[in-house]
Sequence to fold (282 residues):
Amino acid sequence: MHRALIAASTLLFVATSAEAHHARRARPAPAHAHAPAHAHATRSFFLAGDPHVPLAVVRGARIDDAPFSGRHCGARATWKTLGSRWTALDAWGQPMGVYTATSKDDYDATGCAELSFAPKLAGDLGHVFVWAGSAWRASAPAAWIAPMTKRASLAALARAAIPDASVTKSLVWPQCASLRERARFFRVPGRGDWAIATSNTGWLVARDDARGWTIRSHDRVAPTSYSAECFRPVAIFDMNGDGVPEIVLRASGGDGWNDVVLALGRDDRWRVVAASPGGSTA
Fold:
């Protein structure tokens, strides 16, 4: 997705329910692993799910996309090195093995290299990757096995807040269709039970309390007869080691798509802190 569009989307993603318009230990890199140039022991580098371009850099507790924002997509040696090794993560941030970057496709519009890996990983485009030499270490999965009553009430809330019944199958883009789950339930230590629900028009993050589900942040893009923007959760895990999981969320408008990182603020709102340059059919 073009950087200008991403910037606009970022503003939209910050919206709350009242304001909206419209997420085991990583294997250490072997001694011979290729390391991103200038990488520091306190930094971690994450690649998006689709395409595999930069998603976020973590420095201490800070998560952002500043090192690769702009036309040149960051340092070539950091994000574009063939032979570099990356750990694939599952939907809850658990390591699935280390993979080697064996090919890349340089995309002129963003200046980014879209990496491919070996050995081949099933469902490759649904997984976030972290550079194998990163400081990051996996924490226990944040998954919450919510009771059926909670799942049903969240589904009802999503149908009302982010309805997509009018979106035809042809407008459900492959970047979303490749991700089967529309909702995930998780816990934030000391801050309760949460869930993210997505649709083919929007997303919401809600917290469960004595009154039931309360929407804390959401966004919806009104569909038309010929266009729609779909959303799906990619992964939910602690990216910076502060004990609070982040949400990696995918958005696709068909001609452009990207993954973003949502982080929980002190005010219980979820905001975009990093966004991948994404992909485009342009």
Remarks:
- The longest strand covers residues 95-107.
- The chain has two domains: 3-23+141-280, 43-131.
- The CA atoms of residues 3 and 132 lie 27 Å apart.
